[in-house]
Amino acid sequence: MKLSYEKKDVYSSLDEKQIEEAKKYSREYMDFLDKAKTEYLCTKECIKILDKAGFSNINEHSSLKPGDKVYFVNKEKSLFIAVIGKDDLSKGINIVGSHIDSPRLDLKPMPLVENHNMAILKTQFYGGIKKYQWLSIPLAMYGVVYNEKGEKIEIAIGDDDDICFTITDLLPHLASDQLSKKANEFIDAEKMSVLVGNLKSKDAKENKVKENILRILNEKYNIKEIDFVRSDISFVPAFKSKYIGFDKSMIGGYGHDDRVCSYANIKAITDISKQASKLNKTVVSMLVDKEEIGSVGNTSMSTQAFDMFIKDIIKKTGNEVSELKLYYNSKMLSADVTAAIDPDYEEVSDIPNASTIGYGISIEKYTGGSGKYSASEATAKFTSEITNIFDKNNITYQFSVLGKQGKGGGGTIAYILANKGIDVIDCGTAVLAMHSPFEVISVYDAYMTYLAYKSFFNS
Ligand code: MN
Ligand code: MN
């Protein structure tokens, strides 16, 4: 009898049919990733998937019964989704929670400036980025603007056009001062301006390049400079996702953190909903915003809009349970990515406790950094319940923590739900080059992530 534990890769354990399914899943995921580069677009794409699967807005329902499939759209930037089960809500619900915001560059409120005959847009970075990675790459511009009449205008330029944008980096010939600085200092965030124009307006008297850009924006979108203040506009990488490797085993793309788990989440709940009438426990998917900046604000996981959604379900199903009791008996997978061991930087990982790309969904019993400060930790009992569900359903999984002690760390939305009394464990896909414009994951880990969430919903 073998007593030692050995982790296994996903690919070797799959038969031909499952491998084909994993490949098909990866193509659908890549299509989603390319269409959903911001939380607005992610919400929009997910609503399309939900509507197609027969879900409807919870506000259209005065009452709910087992088998009903509903969602709540929180300010166009996050989603709460539920399929109502047969069991009494006092037994708790099964939740999978992921986030749909990714690190990027946002516009400042008054961004447009002209300098040396160039029009540039000033940016504000969002989330934990290594700034140099965002220079000299093609960028696309996405967002919404409200004009003076309060009309919403949607902007999407750079992916499906013959134009895109970029932040110019300093040439190496003249960078000796810059390159002698420390890596966290050598790019000044205030110098990360996006290049957007170079031609002079024929009729403006001054700031002719800036005026020309404002004219183009006005013709195309009917907006003025003041409308930038009433906008949520972001710059994201302008390239599409692509398979990586001779063996097509991996996917490179922008925003795997955390759209790889978010897509698995939405796919799992829509799959479950096809047999909604057989479902015992009510299941909930959450796709939230603002995780990358600490889960603050009314579209983040910390918002009471989530409690409102749960209260609404309790009321409309005619249950008597308090939402506190419901939370106490509920279980959740915090569906977020983790770091994969990088062969060039293995010294930051504690190898027996780190994720290997291609070895299945990663379970993190606890997150946080050194000393478990601010960590969200699952109990031994709940960890046992989850591994049992995965074992029963042939899910390939591995265990990890985010790096060696003293090397940094990171959190997820897990603690917010754990603080409500819910049993929560972190569980998601391992990523190489996380938070870079081109993150890498395994096709087979992504597929396993989806199967894992599905098995949890069904448990
Ligand atoms: Mn994340
Ligand atoms: Mn992140």
Give a description of the structure.
The chain is α/β, with parallel strands linked by helices. The two termini are 29 Å apart. The chain is globular and about 75 Å long. A hairpin with a 5-residue loop joins strand 7 and strand 8. The chain has two domains: 296 residues, Aminopeptidase (3-Layer(aba) Sandwich); 134 residues, Aminopeptidase i, Domain 2, CATH 2.30.250. 26% of the residues lie in helices and 24% in strands. Strands 1-2-3-13-4-14-20-16-18 form a nine-stranded mixed sheet, sandwiched between helices. A six-stranded antiparallel sheet has the order 8-7-10-5-6-9, with helices on one face. It has a three-stranded antiparallel sheet with strand order 11-12-22. Helix 2 packs parallel to helix 5 and helix 5 crosses helix 10. The site of one manganese (II) ion has 3 residues, from loops.
CATH architecture label of the largest domain: 3-Layer(aba) Sandwich
The main pleated sheet reads as: 9 strands, mixed
Secondary structure category: alpha/beta
Helix run count: 10
Measured between the Cα atoms of the first and last residue, the distance is 29 Å
Q: Looking at CATH, which topology of the largest domain would you report?
A: Aminopeptidase
Within CATH, the superfamily of the largest domain carries the name Zn peptidases
| Sheet with most strands: strand arrangement | 1-2-3-13-4-14-20-16-18
Please give the radius of gyration in angstroms: 23 Å
The percent of residues in helical segments reads 25-40%
Average pLDDT, rounded to a whole number, is 96
The low-confidence runs, each spanning 5 or more residues with pLDDT under 50, are none
